[in-house]
Amino acid sequence: MTPLVLAGVTLAAILHAGWNAVLRGGSDRLWSMTLMMIAVGGTSAAALPFLPWPAPASWPYIVASAVIHAAYNLSLVRAYRSGELGQIYPVSRGSSPVLVALGAAAFAQERLTVPAVIGIALVSGGILSLALQGARPRDGQRKGGFLPAALVTGALIGAYTVVDGIGVRLAGNSLAYANSMFLLWSVTTPVIYLFGRQRPPAYTRGQTMAALGGGLVSIVAYGIVIAAMQSGAMGVVSALRETSVVYAALIGRLFLNERLTARRIAACLAIAGGAACLAYPAG
């Protein structure tokens, strides 16, 4: 992995943690996600005339990724209703490199070696630690109550990462692949919202702009990752991106007034370290 790709994926990790903080902080997270998708769709539609058409072989992957991303949107919204950013984000993002590494080995012939066991142990231990810590008493949640939704989200992250890692290599152009997937993905959440709700909530201008900005940030963050996967191993890129769990813990403390105990920091570092171990054999 070149220094430029390394820097790009690290930036993507920070940006990704940032837009998740915007979603978690929203008063109506489904509406916040809908606004994000409106921004994604508008940007992708504007870019469409300036990009080549993805190769036909990549279209099944583009469609599959868009469908998985739609399920991921709903799962993420549900997860943030049951836990804090500093809990949901590390579990959902940290569990995905394990699944990505296994999926890449099964479907993209990327090898897994013994160090992956260390990574799996660290990620699993960090997730278990976060689950046993539970939420603040005032949240009225039992310990680990957020875990199922967070793990489902992690499984969906793993699924779309493997699909995109294969699809982008068949597309002939990473930007064309990403933009086509973004455009298909973006229409799903607004449609779901229209059929499930009568009217949007009364968001302030600041809340609306924050959500729209979060959508734009999400495009940049994942676009960088897709471009990196075109030339780098899926396990390496995914694991480096998951260092965002540490940034999420810091953002949650600074902007959402969440707890940042020594135990939570240790759990996040274990998950990030496990992700790095998973990257080692893949590289």
Give a nutshell description of this structure.
Its main location: membrane. With 283 residues, the chain is an all-alpha fold. The protein is built from twelve helices and no strands.
Structural notes for this entry:
The mean pLDDT is 83. The protein has 283 residues and is mostly helical. Helix 1 runs parallel beside helix 11 and helix 11 packs antiparallel against helix 12. It is globular, with a radius of gyration of 18 Å.
Describe the secondary structure blueprint for this structure.
Layout: H1 3-25, H2 29-47, H3 59-80, H4 85-107, H5 115-133, H6 147-171, H7 174-186, H8 188-196, H9 205-231, H10 234-241, H11 244-256, H12 262-282
Helix pairs in contact: 1-9, 1-11, 2-7, 2-8, 2-9, 3-6, 3-7, 4-5, 4-6, 4-10, 4-11, 4-12, 5-12, 6-7, 6-9, 7-9, 10-12, 11-12
Membrane topology: Multi-pass membrane protein
Protein name: EamA domain-containing protein
InterPro entries: EamA_dom, EmrE-like, Small_drug/metabolite_transptr
